[in-house]
Each structure stands twice: as C-alpha cells, then as structure tokens.
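Lay summary. Proteins are chains of building blocks that fold into shapes, and those shapes determine what they do. In this project we predict the shape from the chain. Here is one chain we studied, written as its sequence of building blocks.
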Amino acid sequence: MNHHRLLAAALALGAAFASPLAAEEAMIPLSFSTANMDLSADPRADFSKYAWGGWAARTEIPADKARWGTMDMLAQNNWHRIRTILEEAAAASAAPGSNLRKIGDFYASAMDEAAIEAAGLKPVEPELARIAAIANLDDLAAYLADAHVHGGGALFGTYPYADQKDNSRIQLIAGQGGLSLPTRDYYLDEKYAKIRPQYVEHVAAMFRLAGTEPEAATKDAETVLLLETELARNSKSVTELRDPLANYNKLTLDEAAALMPDFAFKAYLAASGLPATEQDLNVAQPKFFSGLNQLLTTHPLEAWKTYLRWHALTEAAPYLGAAFDRENFRFFGTVLNGTPAQEPRWQRAAKILDSKIGFAVGEIYVAKYFPPEVRGKLEAMVAIMSDVLRDRIVGLDWMTEPTKQKALEKLKTFRVVVGYPDKWRDYSALTVTRDSYYDNVRAANRFETRRQLAKFGRPFDRTEWLRTPQQVNAYYQPSAGQLVFLAGILQPPFFDPAMDDAVNYGAIVAVIGHEISHGFDDKGRLYDAAGNLADWWSQEDANEFRARAQKLVGQFNGYFALPGLAINGQQTLGENIGDLGGVSIAYEALQRSLQGKERPLIDGFTPEQRFFLSWAQVWRTKYRDDALKRYVASDVHSPGTFRAFGPLVNLPEFFAAFGIREGDPMWRKPEDHAKIW
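And here is the predicted shape, written in a compact code that computers can read:
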C-alpha cells in the first residue's frame, strides 16, 4: 500500500476543515505562519524565539487563563463550539430522557445563578449532617464509601481497571489520595512554604462561609493542613507514581484489610458496591494505607470530621453560590496559578459537562464539526509511522535480536482509533433535571461509579475511551494497546490540509510518532504485546535502554523553567522520549515522502526547516509564573517552551537544517545526544 499517497490525499481535505472555522467569528486563527516567527533572532542561539518569538512578543495571556499556547487556543476554539451545542440544547424542546434533553437541562441548571444563589448552602447540608453524625471509625468508613460513590476524593481512591499483569480481567485498584494541594511537595518542600499559610487562610474562609466562627474556622483550617501534611508524608511523588511495577501490589481482600486493621475496609468496599465475589485487588501504594491506619488512630475523630467537612465544602464549591465559587477560585486560580480572572460562567459550566457527561456532548460535537473521512486519513498516517518505527527497530545497533522480535510483535498489535469511539456511551440510567446544579453533578458522579462497578465480571473492554473526543489531545493506553487521536486535535495547526507536507509532518505526524513512541518509553516498554506488565527485555537491552534514556534525564534536568526552578528530567522522561521519538520518526517519514520530488522553498525555507519550525510552533506557550511552578511540580510533560526545542537538539538533521555548529548556544555534542528509537 502506498501510504505516502494516502497521506497526500489526507492533506487535500482543506475544504472540510476550512468551513467550520470560517463560519465562526470567535475562532482564533491557528495555522502555521512565518508571522509567528522573529526573523531578527538567530536560530543557532534561541530556536524557540526564532520560531515563535513574533507571536510571543504580541501575545498576552488572557486574564482568565493560567497559560496560553497552541493547545489552549485550539481548546478555546472548541469551547466556543461546545457553547453553541449547549445553548442550543438548553433552548430545545428535546424528548424527555434523550441525551439532548439531559445536556440542555444540565447546562441550564449550571447557568441558573439565581436558583444557585437562593439555595445557599442547602445542597451540601445533608452531607455535612452525615459528617457531624460520625461517631466512630466504622461510621467514617460508611460515610467515605458514600462520598466516593458521589465523586468525593477524601483520604484515598478506588476504581476498577484491567489487572496490569492479566488484562483479561478487571481488578479493583486502591490508591493514595486525600490531598487538596497539587502534589505532596506543596506540603513538604520549603520552596512552597509561602503557599501553606495562604492555604490555611483559604480553608478558614470556606469554613466561615459555611457558618463557623472566625477563631474556630482558623483552628479547623490548621487541623486540615496538619492532617493533609501527614497524608503527604506517606504519599509517593509524581515521579514515583510513574513506575507501574512499583505500583502493582496484588493482595487478597484479607491482606488489603490487614493494612488498615482499624478501618472497616471490607465494609467500605461492600458499601461502595463492589461485588462480593471479588477476592483480590491492587493496593498501588501499601505504605500509604498502612500509614493512613496509624493516622486514623493517632489523631482524634473530631479532627478527621473537620477534614471530611473541608473536603465536602471544597468539592461542592464550584456548584454553590457566588461567595463559595469566588473564594474557591481566589485560591486555586489566583494564588496557585496567578490567574487574575475567572473564565466566564458558560465556559466553567461547559468544562463540568465535559467531565460529567462529555460523551453525550461529544456525539453532537463530532456530528457537527468532524469530517468522518479524516479517520481513514489519520489511520494511513499512523501506518506510515509504524512502518518507519518497524524499520528502525530492525536496524537498531544496540538491541539484541530476541528483544527486537518481541518489540516488533508488540508494534503489530497497536490499535488505532481516530476522532471518536465506535460505540457511544449510554446515559439512559442517568437522571438530570433543571432543579439543582449540585444535585446533577452528584447524580452524574453516582452514574459513573455504577457504570465502573458494572465492569466487574466482564472482560476488559479494550475499546473504551478514556477522554472525550472534543478534547485537544491524543493518548496511548498500554493495557489496551490503543492509540487514540481525538477529534478535537485534528485541525490546524496540528492537522492543516491547507499546508505543505513538511508542516504537517512536523505537527500531526510527529504527534502520531509521539504516541507510538509511548509504547516504548520508560513505562510503555514494560508492557508486552498483550498489554500486560511483563519482563520481555534481556538484562543487557534493559541496561542499554536506561543508559540512553538517562541522557534525556540529564538534558532536561539542566533546563530551568524559572530561576532556581529546574525541570525534573525523571518525572518528564516518558513524555520527553515520546517527543524525541515522534520528531525523529516523523522526520524520517518526511524524507521518504520527498524522495524523487522537487523540493521548492516556501516562504524562503526548505522542507526540513519548515518541519522543525512547525514542530516548534505547535508548542509555543506562555505561562504565568505561579502556573509554571505548579506545572513543573505536578505534570509529567515538560513545559511547551522546552518541548519546542528539547528533542530537536538531539538530531544532527536539525543542526544541518539551520547551520548550527559547535560553539553555538543551541549546539550539543554528538556524544551527548539521546538516541533511543
């Protein structure tokens, strides 16, 4: 099959994408453009400034955003489209029980500020009364089960997913949780010391809004910080949570319950709705649960009730009146992220609907905005990239033949899904009304919990989507061997049929390569062709992989997002491997496609130059300082400003394209280059 011919056909779909954007005045133009560049900059000294410094110079972060970049702007375009869908649904006279009616009623309840204000604290009062009635740890376990069913996040979390070592079956996973600040480091690291008293002030303010006297509110807030700090001490870091082997601890129910002898764990599971036939689970972080038991017995019950009351309030705040909503944003939006203003209410509501009944919204979004023929074209692009990666694996000079064969076997098993799921989620069991925003959120959470629990006793569904199709994203799901490219990202500048091949190879084709490479990054490589955690590497090959990956760790450890704020190269390793693999494989695919063809200059640039410029431009991003601090602490991706050039400086082809030589700031010694796949 001539995959490159199919790709050319895909890039000829300009009309299919142009019309929706042209028809909507709110849309932000996002195509690759030399106008984004700063041609006065030297690409040999600062490639990001050269590639998108013009955009950076004239662009301000909107007042209601913590950061502003390509993915954020494309998401904003999609939110405007979703707003149209939601407002039309709210105004429609749709049939009772239909998805359109549920979308419209849910959105209308979110936008009815007068009703929300009039309700005051009443929606959450039953929850607070249940907490007040807790008389012992058994009562606490019973309360916690109900709170988790309705979407609460206190103390820890449980959810069903494929057994990571036997994905023919569903297994319950229990994991650490219960923190309100972004990561454990916010409680323990000195560099976040200034945040902690501000957090206490915020918690106290929320307690005061709920009727607690000022002095008692401050004392209660200090109790919350104390307990969450203790939970943080027993929690793993973001980097440690990336290790799937260390986070797989299969225990019987009796063994799991023995970790917390003073907590009625079996009763908690039964009250949550777990089938009694389930006899084992994965306790992902055993130390956390044994530590939690000690905390439950060493701190008074009243302290834990204060903690639970806080979680009930903070989780309800976005759905309560203006005073709660504003205070919630003041801390989590302004203090933690530096964002001056809230997003408009319609957008906040749209994001909640996306998280609660997003596939109902997505079905309309796809029908309205996503050309169905794009699915086949993207599948052809994935086939191209798989061919290149296959040839690269065959030609690796550092991997032994037995491991190569297993890697090739795994590559063959990847399933590609583009745009939207083949089967839409069934929301018929969900009841939504226009009466209460808070009640609708709880009903949606309860529906999702029951949907998840219904998975027990059934085979793992490899086709289930983890994200709604309207999101600007793509992902690799190792247990399912599934590569998913969402409809929301398949538009300019990632996929732009109006642009030349070099620009698209540097954008969407490199993104495809990024996701394929996740199957062979430091986490993905631990899963075999069947999608199970298994050791299919020889020790020699595993050692060589780690040595090569360590070069990326060292490279990104040397980048500083802000003065004194280094990127964590181990925390971001998987995504950095994905970027390096994606760019290098896409570049080779471009070279194959150009064989025997004319290579005209466009805007004065060669195809190779436009490829690298396109990659850099899709990662253009500006951050507020506080948001950047939070991002570096909590995210497994490097900031976009470093993704724009980080993988490129490992490629001799990049240096050749822009005449970068030893002594130039962008230069890296060949022996320092990371080359894995």
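What the prediction tells us: The mean pLDDT is 94.
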